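Protein entry
_____________
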Amino acid sequence: LLKQEPISVSSGSFWSGVAYFPKNKITSGTPIGYKFYVTNCTFGGWESGIENRVFNLPESDSTLVWKFFNDKNPLTELEEETPLVANEFMLYQNYPNPFNPATTINFSIAEKSNVQLRVFNLLGEVVKTLVNQNEEAGVHSITWNGLNETGAPVNSGIYLLRLEADSQIQMRKMILLK
């Protein structure tokens, strides 16, 4: 979880966050790469890579607390939201992301074609097929409610969204937080 602190200096941006790592997934001194996600933005979130850091976690705890100060306000450096264009093949970032319990997914295709839109887990297994049919050219929108093919809720985590049509493929990363 990440939040922007209300106090900042020099028009900067001060962020703090907390993350939990299961003890069987990480050992003390392991480099951890992480990204910040800001979800309360009208443009669908913000993501920026931060260099790898090494954290020494105590044996009794696997909760990481960090603070980050950026001397530039990230909200002034964001590009405009990508407009939905009906004449191109495009999988747009889901919104909100991270999400709970549902998220909206927009995609566009340039011509009528057979479309597959599927959600995968990080093991490469299909979690949910959202679209598997012929679709007309244009912009399409679908909501995923966080349920798998059998109707059971999926666990919190990172999921991959894959759009395939006319031998073209695009993928996006989604995060479900419960």
Summary: The chain has two domains: 2-76, 90-176. The radius of gyration is 19 Å. The longest strand covers residues 126-135. The chain has no helices and 14 strands.
